[in-house]
Amino acid sequence: MISSTRCGFPSKNNVAAHPRRLCRPRLTLEKAASARCLRTSALRLIPSGSGDCGHLYDDPSECPTLPDIITLPDAGTSLLVGREVDGEGCIALPTVSGVHARVDVSGNGGVTVTDLDSTNGTYVENDTCDANRPTPLQVGKTVTFGDPFLAKFTLVDDSE
């Protein structure tokens, strides 16, 4: 049985598994072997500002561990991003809302990000996303979830 902990990767028997080593559960063994667990796209954390939590915490050791990669879901599905979401989309920062935004991957591979009335906003290429309206996100463009120093990601396509 696979379980998940808040802001943690899926685990089996309480042993954390790295997301790059996981195949989608709905794949058969034959399909998984032929796909070799390839991901088509991923949001990656990029350096912005100092990269530390000095603007949030007096003691740098209080800074939470942040994801260095957020794997996008399969086409036709969504991923919630926020401080209180489980799994892949968790960004445990006080400047990121509990349920901050939704990232959607369309059937044709297009990606949109929708701000879910977050307190500190969502930005694509530094332009504010209107709440509850999907904003296109293209490969090579950045998305910021509230904190421009720590929660800034760029969309990259690993299949290219």
Structure description:
It contains one helix and 13 strands. It has one domain: Sandwich (Tumour Suppressor Smad4), CATH 2.60.200. It has one helix at about 30-35; strands at about 1-5, 10, 15, 40-45, 70, 75-80, 100-105, 110-115, 120-125, 125-130, 135, 140-145, 150-155. It is globular and about 45 Å long. Helices cover about 5% and strands about 30% of the residues. The strands form three sheets. Strands 5-4-13-12-9-10 form a six-stranded antiparallel beta sheet, with no helix packed on it. It has about 160 residues and is mostly beta strands.
* Main pleated sheet: 6 strands, antiparallel
**What is the alpha-carbon Rg in Å?**
16 Å
Would you identify the CATH architecture? Sandwich
Which overall shape is indicated by the principal axes computed on the Cα atoms? globular
Pfam families: FHA (PF00498)
Protein name: FHA domain-containing protein
InterPro entries: Cell_Proc_Reg/RNA_Proc, FHA_dom, SMAD_FHA_dom_sf
Domain FHA: 79-129
Short summary of the structure?
The chain has 160 residues and is mostly beta strands.
Q: How is the secondary structure organized here?
A:
Layout: E1 2-3, E2 11-12, E3 15-16, H1 29-35, E4 42-45, E5 69-71, E6 77-81, E7 101-105, E8 111-115, E9 122-124, E10 127-128, E11 135-137, E12 142-145, E13 152-156
